[in-house]
Amino acid sequence: MTRPGPDNLQPRERLVRHGPAALSDTELLAVLLRSGSASLPVGRLASRLIERFGGLRGLLCAEADALERQPGLGPAKSAQLAAVLELSRRYLRESLVRGAALESPGATERYLKSVLRDHPHEVFACLFLDTRHRVIAFEELFHGTIDGATVYPRVVAEKALRHGAAALIVAHNHPSGVCEPSLADQAITRRLKEALSLLDIRLLDHFVIGEGSPVSMASRGLI
């Protein structure tokens, strides 16, 4: 019996033989979904979904009801996609927690981007750190409108004391995708730094999350 050549292998077989990096987005999605329907093979289903949602990011961030309206998908496959996104976020968080935040700035940026970038409204969040700048906890503290979130330094300080934090890294997203810190962003950063310094808690950085690389306000000399 003739064995299939590399171009004729099914996605799962290609993954086993060549590793996941050798597969296209469509093939990886097909491996995850495992099956399609009688009228829609899994390869075509994966291709349609990526086209319909504009890529993997749009697909994984889609609401469950939007996914379940697609031919060939249902609650079970929608749940699989939600699980994949959450697993990726937890992987990034675990990678960050195992080291010191300031020693792994790339991991910090990747994690913050994964949890904040795709919110439709502004969200302000904090990484609470110990004396060695290891992560104690992450919390989304304030949720705002498309125009902004109201941030209360007193609440941030209370949370920091509750966690026993010695330092903080804060971040918020710009739903517009533009990462440049606004004058309001700079003003709240100054207020936070002043309020926390009274408690001997350091504000190490404030990241603005949008499209592309997050902007560090500390690297801009704004802290």
From TrEMBL:
Source organism (scientific name): Elongatibacter sediminis
Domain MPN: 101-223
Entry superkingdom: Bacteria
Keywords for this protein: Hydrolase, Metal-binding, Metalloprotease, Protease, Zinc
Family: Belongs to the UPF0758 family.
Protein's GO biological process: proteolysis
Signal peptide: none
Coiled coil: none
Keyword Transit peptide: no
Name of the protein in its database record: DNA repair protein RadC
Molecular function terms, GO-annotated: metal ion binding; metallopeptidase activity
InterPro entries named in the record: MPN, RadC_JAB, RuvA_2-like, UPF0758, UPF0758_CS, UPF0758_N
